[in-house]
Amino acid sequence: MASNKASTFNFSESTPSTIRSTPQRFKTLRSIPKSWLIAAAIFYCASVITVGLLAGLLPRRTQQITVLATVIPSNTTGSVPITTTTGIITTTTGTITTTQDPSLCVEDECNLRLLSDVIVHSYQIQYMYNDSKQTVVRGQVTIEFTLKQPIKQLIYHSKEMVELEEPALFEDEVYRFISMRTYVRNDYISLRLTSNSLFARNRYRLVQNFAVKLTDSNVGFYQTIYKDGENTMEKLLSTQFEPIDARRAFPCFDEPHLKAPFTITIIHPENTVALANFPSIEESLENGLRRTKFAETYPMSTYLAAWAILPDTYGSRNDNEDEPWMTVWARREVTERNHTALALEIASKSVPFYASYFNTSEPITPKIDLLAVPEFTFGAMENWGLVTFREDRLIYDEKIVSTEQKRELGETIAHELAHFWFGNYVTCQWWTDLWLNEAMATWLSYKPFADNYPSWNMEVLVFSNNIIPSMWDDARPSSHPIVVPNVTDPGEISSLFDSITYSKGASILRMLELTAGTQKFQHSLQEYLQLNALSVGDPRFFYNNLFTNMNGEAFVMNWLEEKNFPVTNVTLSIENGDTTVTFTQSRFIISNALDASQLDGNYRWKIMIKCVLGGDYPNSDTTNIGGDTIEFLFETEQSTQVITGKSYSWIKCNRDFISYHLTQYSFPSNTYQRFANVLETNPTFFSNADKINFLQDTFLLAYKGLIDYTEPLRLMRSLVKTNTQQHIHWKTFEWHWSTLVSLVNYLPDTLPKFQNFAIQQILSNGETIDSILTLNPTDDDNTKLLKSLKFALLCRMNHAGALQKASELFKSIPIEYFNNSNAVINVNADFLTTVYEYHMSVNDNEADWNMMYNYYRIAISPQEQTRALSAISATKDTTRLNRLLEEGLSNPLVSIKRQDYFRMIKFMAAYTVGRTVAWTFYKANYRRLVEVFNLEHYEFGQSILSFAESFEKQSHFDEMNQLFSDYPNAGSAVSARKQAIDQVKMNLEWIRSRNENLRNALDANVNFAISILSSIVGLTFSFLTIFIIVVKRQCRTITNLLTGNTSFIVGIYLIFNLVSSIYGLDERWALHQYACQFRAYGFVVSCTLLLYSHAIHAISRLFAVVFYKQKYLFTYRVHQLLIIINWLLGILLPVGIFFIDDGGYIYEQESRLCTCTTKRVLSALYGIVTAFVIPFHITLVIYGKIFCLCRQSTKRVQSEQTATIRKSPHRNMHMPNMYREIALVRKMSILLCIILGGGVPYLVLVLWHMMNIGLPHSSLYLLIVNSISICTALMMMTLFHFSEQVKKSAYDYIKKLCIG
Prior knowledge:
Radius of gyration: 42 Å
Number of helices: 43
Low-confidence stretches: 1-29, 53-99, 1067-1072, 1201-1216
Structural class: alpha+beta
Mean pLDDT: 85
Distance between the termini: 108 Å
Number of strands: 34
């Protein structure tokens, strides 16, 4: 809108008077001499000309005014009189120029870009803010510029001004009469000369007065209302202009390449402090108002201009030891508690690092202010010299800020300061090249920490923060290239600030640096900055300077100008002792449900292939590791490499995960099993980046359906088996698992198995909840992050013990702590978020919820505010959820901050109840959301994705499309809406085609049906045998005493086995392994008893054959003593396993058993020797002796007459029992062989682990589960069959029962 000319700020205007003469009679005119009339006419014309010249040549004065504290609607049209007062002069402004038809453009107004024939020399901006109650601020802008060629329309930007006066335009200090109109659709002000002539090539000065409303939308020039430490309301004014919101605050040429110095002056209340990009150079005080003028800035884009007005109670902390002068501004209470010290320290170390890295300190401003704004939508903004931050990215309390939050804070500060060089010092020509500013700052933000804080291990964040999430977003047709040509629409420009620009861009820069070399990359950056200092840059110079062996621009643009990324299929084959590797590339689209028909199927990426080979096919995977490498530039559809004379069994490409692509492998057999073998036998060969690459590739390929989910699960199990303690490995797994859980939460058939798999990985290798929650003062950041992740994932997987622990920890926090007291809490900061959230999600306690809601509103720490917000959003109470949504939208001052509203919706959408409530509210109140936040609000635009990621029904898809149809103007959500549609299509397709595959993979190939059935059969015969021996007197013989002992031992073993098998059938079997070590010990005790019972049988037979004359050996007492020895050995010998190899009694996830694990070889060997080898050899030796004696006696019987033999003095055994003893030995040997056969798979598995030949085949675990129980049951049935007396008595008893 516009008004007639008016005056402000010592700028006055004289207008020629219009003389209206009264009509005269012609006869009177005739009486006047003609000479007089001629003289009067000449005088009149001369007067008009003189006044006109004076109006143009003399500078106009502006009256200083004060705006009344009244709200002027931004949609005001027509005449709006505004009365203003200073106490000296009263002035009434003129009328506002209106837009006749905002839907029609005229000539150049129809272009979405300004014409490139203007050079902007400077801006002078002055604001007047004289009262903290004021919601409208008046300003004046003076723009010096040069037109490079004649133009008919002079067009620049302005948006949503409360009042906009016609400007005064001077050409070489000569005033030009102009007309002004606005074209709202393109945010244009259009000027024309009233003479309808062209604006000449010349230098101009434009002076324009305006008024802006202080918004609550966190963009433009806006206000923040917050509570200080004394619970009083304070106001802070700040700016946020990137990308195209400077036009909301002052008329300007709002395009990034039109850089110019800024001189800013602010008139503000005496009890406030004004800040701007550069230091203040003049301050004066008059009538309770302070006038602060700031030094002229470096040439910079309009989006980098910044200023703020703070209460003088706002806290500050500065570092006056080094240049530049650096100050951190934050709320008083956090400053007084020294919670800004870390931010100041990081900034003070990052600036000199970048100055050294780029070899120039010129971008460093004379002072640097880091301002924490209580309401700030983004993480931070790199305004040159006045960097603004969301509070949680600048405020740090080591007692309650987690390690992850600390890293986020550090990365954000370093990112914004890197912009001083990339983005501020050298700026992109247009938003097309935004990626180089944002991606470069992202990639470079990790570098200062390697020097200054190496223990933070920040460089690995590029995987979890950038590569992994961006590949997920980029694998869809709705993605966009990093460099988007011809982007002009404001919504499209805003949507560029996404993961593709930031994260994929940073991933590509990492690829370029590691491909070109670190020093070459750095040197190219230095030359690029030097060439384009304080100007706009052409990135092609940087691209071409990177490589000497190829066309740099062609290589880089090949990755920048095409969306998506390739999947490389690597096929290894062996022919005649040679290894042939075939490479094929194609575009990777993550789901078959997405329409890729519009994509270029023939596009080929320039991929730097780097591979390593190993193994000796078909004998081994763990020999010749790294024997050969393959490196070449792959830019065709297919390529073949041959290595002669060697037969490798595997190849690993994309070494160190340098390139931005996926790799799918195909080997002659057991493709991914071979990688698992190497991971387990040589855990250090593959780098951490390679291990991340394995998980990333296999999870995405499995999601698409190119491989089974068995493969990523296999590789994760292998990493767990090697007891990986790298947080980034677990983070990669957790990222993909969390992506799937959004869907699986709504799939009850899959959810228990899904949860159980994650739980078993976490609680492996002896890990417990208590050990996870135990943090030592010496633990490094990696350990803290890992334990925090594990506890959070256990809770998310609904682990009962973890959830109970979270509630216990929450209840241990003193209530006064949540009233901002200094109470000490015994919960480590790395677990606080999980503790708050899951206590609220599980415990429906209204008092706790109200306490946390109040804590969100009063908490001093911004991190604690976020935690409290996540906690109250996790409730299952629909009334409370609706209360949050409504109060946050209608009354943010006492409820949810504007900056947190869509974060809260995301928190809610993570839960089934919360998603339903939030989605219903979102649909019903979409128009209100638009009114409050506006369509260009970035987080509003992205909020639809919070729902889409878990929509699992066609009805949800239809509801979402209906919403888009009802509100077709997407604003900044253009890209997000496309992504949301793609995401729901992906969800529906995944459920249809991939859910069953994942469910089958999670079954872990263990079938307990045979084990349970054999246990029941064996127990039946065991109990029947014992019952008959006890009940039937005729069966109470010494032999049957031993048989009864064996039967009892078999019964004990089968009971243990039956209980474990039943546990294994439970979908949550990893949770329900109670008394695990005791049951594992019981297993080994029963096995030991069983084998030694056979040795006791053998000793008894030895008495009968060799010592038959010693009658006392055939008594019950002696045999009872043997049984006691049997039990003592069986109970005591397995105790040693507790003390060998850190204890071998653990839960073994592959077999779902609590047992003496085969993974701990020493304890397993001890168990084999004591439980199997020793009793087996004792038995074998005795039976061998008996058998030899019996065979000798048999030969004598055949060579002599029976009567003679009876008198032979050489008789050495009880001849009537000779044949019976041979038969008994044979029977007992059969029993022994049966039971030993059951232990063979266990022995094979132990040997497998001893030889370190990789991951055992899953069928071995199936055999272990079933073979021992089957053989034990079979042995019991055979023993029953061999016991003739017992068998006959049992048959008679059963027959009697049936007849009776």
